[in-house]
Design a protein that fits this description.
mainly alpha, 121 residues, 4 helices
Length: 121
C-alpha cells in the first residue's frame, strides 16, 4: 500500500509519496532543452519529464501565442466597448465598423481552432 503524503511538494496519485528515483543521462544541451520546455509550460522539469514519459502528453502551450491571442481579443473588446458607448450616447452606429469587428473576431476564432488542431497532432 502506498504511503500517505507527509510534506507539501510530494504530490502523486491519491497523495502517495514519490520515493523512487529514475536517473537518466543527458548532455548539457539536452538538459537545457528540457528545462526550457518545462519553463515554457510553467512546470518543473521533473513534472515535464514525468508527463512526457508516462502519459505521452506534454502540454504544447505557447506563451507567446497565448499572449498574442489575448491581445487580439482585448482589442476586439475595446472596439465593442467603443461601439456600445457610441450607441448609448445616441450617435449613429456604422454597420461597417461592426462588420469589421465581427470579421476580426471570426478570424481570431479560426486561428485559435487551427492552433488547437495543430497542437492535438
Amino acid at each position: 500500500m502506498a504511503q500517505k503524503k507527509k510534506r507539501p511538494g510530494q504530490s502523486g496519485e491519491l497523495g502517495s509519496i514519490r520515493d523512487r528515483q529514475l536517473h537518466i543521462r543527458v548532455s548539457d544541451e539536452e538538459l537545457k532543452q528540457l528545462e526550457d520546455k518545462a519553463t515554457s509550460q510553467r512546470t518543473s522539469t521533473a513534472k515535464y519529464c514525468r508527463d512526457a514519459l508516462l502519459y505521452e502528453k506534454v502540454h504544447k502551450a505557447n506563451i507567446k501565442e497565448q499572449t498574442e491571442l489575448l491581445n487580439q481579443l482585448n482589442k476586439i473588446g475595446v472596439n465593442l466597448n467603443q461601439i456600445a458607448h457610441r450607441i448609448n450616447k445616441g450617435e449613429l452606429f456604422i454597420v461597417e465598423e461592426f462588420q469589421d469587428i465581427l470579421k476580426a473576431f471570426k478570424a481570431l476564432k479560426k486561428s485559435q481552432h487551427t492552433r488547437e488542431l495543430n497542437n492535438d497532432n
